[in-house]
Amino acid sequence: MLSHSPLKYILPIGIFIALFFDGSISLVFSHSLFSNYYFIPQLTFLWLFFAMFFIQRINIRIELWAALAGLIFDMYYTGIIGVYLFVFPLAIYIGKKLYKLLSVDIFSAILIYFIDLSIIYLLSFFANKLQNLTSMSDSFFLVHVLGPTLIINIIFLIILYIPCQILFERLD
Amino acid sequence: MHKFFSNRKWVIIIVCIVLALGFMTLSVSTRNNRSMPPFIQRFGNDIVGITSTVVAFPVNTVRHGSENINNLINTYKENQQLKSQVSTVVSTKVKNQALQQENAQLKRQLKMNASLTDYQAITSNVLSRTPSAWQSQFIINKGSSAGVQKNMPVLGGNGLIGRVSEVNTTNSKVELISDNSDSSNKFSVAITNKDGKTVNGLINGFDRNTGELIMGHLNTEIKLNKGDKVSTNGLGGITPKGLYVGSVAKNTTDDYGTSSKVYIKTPASMNDLEVVTVAAKKE
Hints:
The complex is a heterodimer. By secondary structure, chain A is mainly alpha-helical. Chain A has helices at residues 7-28, 30-33, 43-54, 62-78, 84-99, 106-130, 138-171. Chain A is globular and about 50 Å long. The model of chain A has no long low-confidence stretch (mean pLDDT 85). Chain B is globular and about 80 Å long. Chain B has helices spanning 2-6, 8-33, 39-109; strands spanning 119-129, 137-140, 153-156, 159-167, 172-176, 187-192, 198-203, 205-207, 212-218, 229-233, 241-253, 260-265, 275-281. In chain B, strands 7-6-10-11-12-9-8 form a seven-stranded antiparallel sheet, with no helix packed on it. By secondary structure, chain B is an alpha+beta fold. Among the domains of chain B are: 2-33; 187-265, Rod shape-determining protein MreC, domain 2 (Thrombin, subunit H, Beta Barrel), CATH 2.40.10.350. Classes of the chains: A mainly alpha, B alpha+beta. Chains A and B meet through helix 1, helix 4, helix 5, helix 6 and helix 7 of A and helix 2, helix 3, strand 1 and strand 2 of B.
């Protein structure tokens, strides 16, 4: 089934484009994104999330793609392998479990995405803290990083929900 | 105990946690000890870096377009200011030339080929920035093939902004000076006050609220005032001497009142970077 679907090509290409857009957006808008509050764009996970959310007919191993995206993210951006490599698939897995309980509409998408992103950032923060890679305090993280990041990424989700829904339904 | 581990999911979760921590420890120790990451990682990073330029190009083009319009508006104002400065530039240039000649002569007399202030500049473009709050890193498009080495200082805008933290063949990662994690190295700097007296120390902190660097644990009788210039002192590592870091913003005592703590204001914002210079110490 999968071998005849254009999704086989679209999914990895989309992962790569989203991955590089994350870096480019962070660079170009770094003045407004990383000043006092940290708004971290996370389009890579958004793309994986949409793939998980909209692809229903074909059984695609989205966790494996998430692990691959996480590995590239770790290698290229942070240089510390092992954070997103495991956190992305875990978030997708939890998203899939929650998804079975809820209906497919934008409100449940926002709810699941909110939970997934919180898991991603909390786990990666504690992993970095454990390895002494950051000296950020917990309260600073919650107020200055997690909050703004959730806000901006949910805005991205709302903007891109309908285009991605149309795209995936065409392809599926 | 038997029942707990009989569940396959638990085994998978525990294996994953162990693997994640293992991988992280491995990459942290690689970063701290080896001059280059392992071959596979370097190879992967090079391929990703090349692909990244394809996506970064249109984004940067859009950015340049909007910047050009802004620049045009600023040009007139700047021109007025610059005109008044032009007259002094020529005299400074001539003086500089004379000093350089004199310096070269003196060095020849001392039979010294390169001093601490000599460095070779490697100019490179910034490809992208790490989308992360606690790792202020960005990726530049010059690697070991252009002569970049680990721990070389990086200049941007008007002063020092960071150091090379990982070198691949065609790209490398730069860690900003504001990234004050325990694993990153510290910069050794000197403050010169108005009387010409110098205080040496380490940059060992960053104030997230004001964006100023902190130089702590200073025990000195020399009085430092606001506006005193801070530059690297060339001691330790491969950082050349005389790279401008910033100026003193305020001088206070630390929490225990035993030593003084100096806040340093950097000349340029570390966020608007497009072209940076890697300073390689001449051998």
